[in-house]
Amino acid sequence: MDQIPRDAVVFISQPAPHVNATFGGLMALRAIQTKAAGAVIDGNLRDLEEHRNLKFPVFAKGVSTSAGSELYRVSEVNVPVRLNSTIQERWINPGDFIIADLNGVVCVPQALVTQVLDAVPGIAETNQRCADAIKQGRTVAETFKEFREQ
Questions:
Q1: Which residue among 78, 89, 96, 126 has the highest number of C-beta atoms inside a 10 angstrom radius?
Q2: How far is CA 80 from CA 17, 34, 83, 92, 94, in A?
Q3: In sequence order, what are the residues at sequence separation of 6 or more whose Cβ sits closer than 8 angstroms to the Cβ of residue 72?
Q4: pLDDT tens, position by position, 30-66
Q5: CB atoms within 10 A of CB 39
């Protein structure tokens, strides 16, 4: 945690099985001190109330009440990390962009950032057109056919 660059998102990959937490309130305090942008834990965290009080953005797969200090250690820093998933093969690389909100976490590879940023305004506009049409009483099927199937 002491090596986090300013404005970086910390991505921690916890080896299975996810029994203990790999990130807690003390780690969040240190991340705040280093001016990290947030943390994504591919595994468990703990100290939810502390995280809420600190207002530090942290996202995790799960929660555990026990610390992992005796079980986990930093093995590598600033290297590609494999997402622990049985449904997709995904690597998070240094320099990738991490976007997270209440709906989940998305990783945008650094090489695709410009394409994604170019596409977002059009997607947002289409979604707004759909919302407006549905509010006017149109069905989802006809709205999607008109605005999304173009």
A1: 96
A2: 20, 21, 10, 6, 6
A3: 14, 20, 22
A4: 999 999 999 999 988 988 888 889 999 999 988 887 7
A5: 25
For 90-116, the pLDDT digits (tens) are 888 999 998 887 777 888 999 999 999
Q: Name 42's bridge partners.
A: 13
Distances (CA, A) of 142 to 113, 145, 149: 32, 5, 10
Q: In this structure, are strands 9-13 and 97-101 parallel, antiparallel, or unpaired?
A: unpaired
Question: Considering only CA atoms, which of 30, 22, 21, 77 is closest in space to residue 54?
Answer: 30
Residue with tokens 């999304």: 148
CB-CB neighbours of 97 under 10 Å: 14
Report d(CA 43, CA 22) in Å as an integer.
7
Q: Which amino acid, residue 90?
A: R
Torsion sign (Cα): 139, 142, 143, 148: positive
Beta bridge partners of 102: none
